[in-house]
Amino acid sequence: MLQIDGSYNEGGGQILRTALAYSTLFQKPFEIINIRKGRPKPGLKNQHLYCIKALQQLCNAKVGGDELGSEKLRYFPNKISSTKIKVDIETAGSITLLLQSLLLPCLFSQKAKKIEIVGGTDVKYSPQIDYLKEIILPQLNKYAEKIELKLEKRGYYPKGGGKIILTIRPKYNLENLEDSPKIDLTEQGGLIQIKGISHASHDLQEIEVAERQLKSAKINLSQLKVPITIDAQYSDTLSTGSGITLWAVFSKEEEELGYLNPIKIGSDALGEKGKPSGDVGKEAAQKLIDEINSKAPVDQHLADNLIPFMGLIPGSEIKTSKITNHTLTNIYVVEQFLGKKFKVEGNTIKSI
């Protein structure tokens, strides 16, 4: 049985999420030890258990060690058979992190899938839901007949209660992957526009939190001299919260805005008690400006999300602003399953 060391690099939950995705897709059992060894409270957290529950729905996997705080897990996947998955994380556990375990096996399996998840849509230490929808999923459109993400309700910390519905109709599977297009993102191209969504719970509407986040972001982004469109949104939520997601859209002359490999760089920031709304907008704007100034077409967070997909598609290549520990961790996990798959030179990553 394949054994994976959960203490590799930063020793976080990313190792487990990616291993679960690959194990499910290839129907290859694995054992992971030292789970989240690098964290103050090691072992499985609640959100990891819901990842496992979701995958059990997808493929009727057999699992050993799936208990809160467990530092060891054995996972035996079966054939992917389910077409509907429903998960209620019951807290503000991150929906976008849970999807890191589900997206890859659902995208490259035989049948269409409908995934409903209740939990946190915009929470700390994870991509906001608008980042997933506007930055990550556009890179995966080329591998599906359809990928549609509907945000039914936002969920902030601590109560969560946000809901998404993700529909995936696959175009490729493991048998015909050699025919699939490569991920090719090596040049940033010219900046065309900035877009974004500034959001907050309804109880913050009277003091215009979403608008203040938006205005601050616009002021800081004005130096870029391109059109800026940021929408303000308010939602009925179980907990008070706010945030903003921004994305820069680029084009290369020969392919305009591009469908197969769209060039979109993203950033986000969350509000919190005692943090001025203007600071939230400024933080997201400065992150985006730094990414743009790197001249790379892939931001540092998109890079780690693309690695599991690049591992399946030799000849893919990306240039990122920064190679993070999450990216290195994902490379490690993919190569545990598939052998040597990546070549890293500076901030350029190639799959071989």
Characterization of this structure:
- 30% of the residues lie in helices and 27% in strands.
- It contains 8 helices and 16 strands.
- The mean pLDDT is 96.
- The chain has 3 domains: 2-183, UDP-n-acetylglucosamine1-carboxyvinyl-transferase, Chain (Alpha-beta prism); 187-293, Dihydrodipicolinate Reductase, domain 2, CATH 3.30.360; 306-352, no CATH class.
- The chain is α/β, with parallel strands linked by helices and 352 residues long.
- Helix 5 packs parallel to helix 6 (277-293).
- The protein starts with a strand and ends with a strand.
- The strands form 4 sheets. Strands 1-2-4-3 form a 4-stranded mixed sheet, covered by helices on one side. Strands 5-6-8-7 form a 4-stranded mixed sheet, with helices on one face. It has a 4-stranded mixed sheet with strand order 9-14-16-15, with no helix packed on it.
